[in-house]
Amino acid sequence: MADLSDAEMMNRIQSADAAAFRELLNRFERKVFGLAWRLTASEADARDLTQDVFLKVWKNPAAWQPTAKLDTWLYRVAYNAFIDMRRREKPTEELGETLESPADSPEKAMLLQNEADRVRKAVDSLPARQKEALILCYYQDLKAKDAAQILGLSQGATEALLFRARQSLKDLLGKEIMT
Amino acid sequence: MTLTDTQLDALLNQYTVPDSKGLSDEIFMRAMRERAPKLWLFFVKNCAWLSVAFLIGGFCFGSYANAADYRNAAQYLDTLYDYGAF
After folding, report:
1. What is the CATH number of the domain that holds A135?
2. Is the complex ipTM more than 0.85?
3. pLDDT for the residue A179
């Protein structure tokens, strides 16, 4: 199943092949969860959003057109679900979950935890569109063109947002290093 | 102080995603549940057919039971006749 192309896998999902759906989850669950987690800044919301995305695909796999890249399409579904969620709900509370820390000693873990927390807060403080452009291009590895499609913007506008986001972060995080 | 691109990239890499803790299995189970036909839906959809099947079954069983009764009654009358009751 792992050697199936995305198109073959989606064809099988259309005929309700459970193994193909499992393969879809293996390939993309982590990426979609990552996007959802960074967008919502809440683990519970990210889990709900990821579930919504994959259940939508399971119920209506024909919505994907093979001309689109599967990961970009999944991100668009996730992004639209996020926009719906944001419309429905009030802004989410501060993130309470601990960030993953790959450090091997408690001191190093604490240092990395603080560092990660600082970066997360800086990213969260960006204007919504800049944050979204940064997450899509930097963390989800999308090209500006694909991110622009998801955000419903031109490529130029997305690149400008990304540039401004990076500039703001350089200033913000640089200032904190100084203090 | 403004950070360089390399410094910023190094910092951004610290912003990692936590483990999704079995989310994949959770989604898979839910998808399979949603696909499985619900029992009540099966009954609603097949209610008419089930009613007809029940009536036909009842009719057949009733006919068989009646036929058996008639056979028993005929045997009883034969016995009475043998004993010279008529």
Report:
1. 1.10.10.10
2. no
3. 55
DSSP conformation letters of A23-54: HHHHHHHHHHHHHHHHHH--HHHHHHHHHHHH
What are the domain boundaries of chain B? Answer: 21-82
Residues A71 and A30 in one domain: yes
Residues 6+ apart with CB under 8 A from A55: B27, B30, B31, B34
Instruction: Domain of residue A21: give its range.
Output: 6-88
Are B17 and A38 inside 8 Å of each other by CB?
yes
Q: For residue A72, what is the domain's CATH number?
A: 1.10.1740.10
> Chain A within 8 Å of B82 (Cβ-Cβ)?
no
- Domain match, A133 and A167 both: yes
Is residue A17 less than 8 Å (CB to CB) from chain B? no
Please tell me the distance in Å from A135's CA to the nearest CA on chain B. Answer: 10
Please check whether residues A75 and A116 belong to one and the same domain.
no
CA nearest to B26 within chain A: A51
Output the pTM of the full model.
0.73
Name the token pair of A60: 């209506």
Which of A60, A88, A116 represents a domain boundary (last residue)?
A88
On whether any CB of chain A is under 8 Å from the CB of B24, the answer is yes
- Distance to chain A for B4, nearest Cα, Å: 7
User: Which distant-in-sequence residues (6+ apart) come within 8 Å of A144 by Cβ?
Assistant: A137, A155, A158, A159, A162
Nearest to B31 among A38, A58, A171 (CB): A58
Does A135 fall in a domain? yes
Provide, as residue numbers in chain B, all residues whose Cβ is less than 8 Å from the Cβ of A177: 1, 3
φ and ψ at residue B18, rounded to 5 degrees: -70, 165
Measure in Å the smallest separation between the Cα of A169 and chain B Cα atoms: 8
Low pLDDT (below 50) residues in chain A = 93-103
**Does the pLDDT value for residue B62 go beyond 90?**
no
The predicted-structure confidence for B8-32, as pLDDT tens digits, reads as follows: 999 999 888 889 889 999 999 999 9
Please give the pLDDT value at position A115.
Answer: 82
- Find which of A53-67, B48-62, B67-81 is predicted with most confidence, using mean pLDDT: A53-67
